[in-house]
Amino acid sequence: MENKPQNQKSALIAMSGGVDSTVSALLTLRSGYDCAGAIMKLHPNVKDSEADARSAAKLLNIPFYVLNLHDVFANKVIDNFVDEYNEGRTPNPCVVCNKNLKFGQMLDKANELKKKYIVTGHYAQIWQDASGRYQLSKGVDPTKDQSYVLYTLTQHQLANTLFPLGGMSKAEVREIAHSIGFENASKSESQDICFVPGGDYAKFIEDYTGKAPKKGRFVDTLGNDLGENKGILHYTIGQRRGLGLAMPHPPYVVEIRPEDNTVVIGKNDMLYSKVLYIRSINLISFDKLETPIKAKVKIRYTHVEQPALVRQLGDDELRIEFDEPQRAITKGQTAVIYDGNDVLGGGTIV
């Protein structure tokens, strides 16, 4: 069989059945690309939108593929999610999924199909600087910007990815979908982690592992016993609700000790700190941070990035010191570094 060269103006669209990926496919087609669509089948709990994605591909008259990634998703994303919670950390599975599946497995499929690019419906922007290095910036719609969960993208991935929606608002995207009669134009969006419908992480982990979490103790910051906890995977730093503790002040989780299943309870003001360290880093704007820089850092998806001094300590560690103390810096979460709208890089809080 003839080994066809890769078409430089061709793309594989990551289709979820939602309006964003569907409009991304349409815009890519309109730009003259030879397109195909593909959906990732991830987990039985993930609501199956294959019919919507297939319908959109048919309307656009492009080939459609189904990638069965149940095993990869379980090994790379869910197992990591479970392990992190059992170690007293609070993971971000969307970041892990983007790294390993959307921009890993999907790019492999594009190569197999001789497609130059993968296209997703993320609200972010990719561009090249004067040196030819690829950069990542926020999407122009501040309510939809997804650059935070994309900091793991490598130069190779950025060079082979298109984000057609980066310069658009969600309202504009829905308007395009309505104008050409896409069935999913008004489809609502889930805010939950896709494989944990309803958001009960602890129950999901218990069902997935077949093991009840090991109970431990609540203690205060002086080590005084406050009673039994339900197991550390039920708690995260800064949590107040669901503790079941009667105290003279509002109780908050200020520390989790996985070695003996202890949850430390303290006051709200104990949750503030200025310094954090990140590992598993990926730097986008440069290969290495040669000297400390002033930047802004975001420590969770809903956090507004704050001024900080960023210093590289080794090949895989950054020290971040905020100008002002930040509340509930949490191990396992992602810290992403910005210069204005540009993503410099990021890593996992340790």
CATH level-3 fold name of the largest domain: Rossmann fold
- Which CATH first-tier class of the largest domain would you pick? Alpha Beta
Distance between the termini: 50 Å
* CATH architecture type of the largest domain: 3-Layer(aba) Sandwich
Report the mean per-residue pLDDT as an integer.
93
Count of structural domains? 3
**How many helices?**
7
Structural category is: alpha/beta
Helix percentage? 10-25%
Main beta sheet, described? 6 strands, antiparallel, barrel
Low-pLDDT segments: none
Summarize the helix and strand pattern as letters.
Answer: EHEHEHHEEEHEHHEEEEEEEEEE
Main traits of this protein?
6-stranded antiparallel β-barrel; globular; alpha/beta; SH3 type barrels; Rossmann fold; 5-stranded parallel sheet; 32% strand; 3 domains; 7 helices; 350 residues; Elongation Factor Tu (Ef-tu), domain 3
How would you describe this protein?
This protein is α/β, with parallel strands linked by helices and 350 residues long. Helix content is 24%, strand content 32%. The protein is built from 7 helices and 17 strands. Helix 3 runs antiparallel to helix 4.
Task: Note the topology.
Blueprint: E1 7-14, H1 19-30, E2 34-41, H2 50-60, E3 64-68, H3 70-86, H4 93-112, E4 115-119, E5 124-128, E6 134-138, H5 155-159, E7 161-162, H6 170-179, H7 201-209, E8 216-220, E9 225-229, E10 252-257, E11 262-266, E12 272-283, E13 293-298, E14 306-314, E15 317-327, E16 334-339, E17 342-349
Parallel strand pairs: 1-2, 1-4, 2-3, 4-7, 8-11
Antiparallel strand pairs: 5-6, 6-17, 8-9, 10-11, 12-15, 12-17, 13-14, 13-16, 14-15, 16-17
